[in-house]
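Reply to dn_fold:

You asked what the input looked like. This is it:
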Amino acid sequence: MKEYFKEQISNIKKIIYLSKIDLVRTYRGSTLGWFWAIFKPAFAIIIYYFTFIIGLKVSKDIFGYPYFLWLIAGIVPWFFIRDILQQGVESIRKYHYLVTKVKFPVSIIPTFTTLSNFIIHLILLILVFACFIISNHSLTIYIIQLPIYITLMFLFFNFLNLFLSSLSAISKDFCSFIKSFTTAIFWLSGII
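and this is what came back:
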């Protein structure tokens, strides 16, 4: 663990630079570019809104908040978890050309992949706060716990991606299994 953290800290500039490149590379070639980072989850939320609020007429408040606010507060972290698991598990395969470099620290590959997804997650969290404020629902005192949870979530999924990406470097079937497994986790969890 000591070596891992030492390697991460000594390569912090490289991690930030590579995470920016990963974000640019992800949305390069599309006309709308970075807009897709926000539009894709927002579109899914709109679909859930029409399905549950308009179609199924779920209007019961949960813990004093409308169902839609409760839903987006739970589904935005899920988007981060899903993207981290699906992209992080194949990060070493995706950046295999970096692994062949003689002095490139392989442990930072999952870190910059996690960081690039984390940036999008923070933007989505700001949009969730905006939805709460626009709908005239105050944020509670528990909001002060959010930085701790976000940090721990980042660290947990970074370590998990380091482990899973190492396994997926051995077998491509493992990547497919994890991607299928994330769909099952979504429907088995209590998000919806």
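Residues 88 and 161 are 5 Å apart (CA to CA).
Hope that clears it up.
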